[in-house]
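Note to self: keep these together.
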Amino acid sequence: MDDYKFTRDTYMDTYNTDIARRATAGGILRQFNETATQNMSAFRPSYDELLDSGRALMVSRMDIEIPDPPFMEEPIQVSTWPILPKGAVIRRCYEMSKDGVLLARASSDWALVETASRKILRMTPDTFPNYRYGDYVNLFDKKFHISKETAASMETAGTHKVTLRDCDCNGHMNNTYYLDVLCDAIPELYDYEHHWVNSVRLHFAKEAPLGSEITLRRCKDGDTYLFQTFLEDGSLNIECQIGIV
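Structure:
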C-alpha cells in the first residue's frame, strides 16, 4: 500500500445499504467522509480542532465512480489521501476495495473557510504540515456542466425540508445526505434488485441551512439523471449528475 494512503478496515452497515442490502451512493460517500475525518485526526489538526480554531473545510465538488458496490456487512478497506493544496483549493481522493479489488473511488475539492466571516482562506503545505500528500486521480475527462438549455428543460421533482437529522455541526445540510434525497427522485432505483447508482458528479453552490426548503428539478438523458436544487430565494444550491445501471 502506498505510504501516503490512510486506510481503515470497515464494512457497510444497515444504515448505508438499500433493500437489496447493497451500499447506497450516500452510504459510500459517508464511508469516504468518515475515513477522511479519521485521517485528519491521525495527522492533525482534527476536524474538531479545525472548528475550534474558527475554520472549516467546505466541499465544492465530489466525483464518484462505483463499479462494484459492496453489500451489507461485507468487509472492505477504505483509503483516502490529500493532494498538496493550491491557492484556495485542497483536493482529496478516496478508494474503496475488497481484497485488492476496487469497489468505488472518488475525488473532491475543498476550501478552507473562516466560519465567522465565511471568508475563503488560501492554503499552503504549512496549513496542514503533518499530512502525507499523494497524487491526484482524475475520474472523468470532461468538467461537469449543466447548460442553460438543459436547465430550462428540467421538471420540478419535489421539495425537501432541511430538518435536524439532515444537519451537521456547521448547521447546514450534510453533503452526504443530498445523494439520499436525489436518489429518492430516481424511479428506476425503486426496482432495487436490478438498478443502482454507478457514478455521481456533485457540485455544491450554496449551503442549505436548518429549516430551509430546497426544490428539486430533474431531467433524464439515457441512463443519466441531471439535477439542480434551489433554495427558497431562488439561488442555486447544488448541481448533480447521477448515472445508474
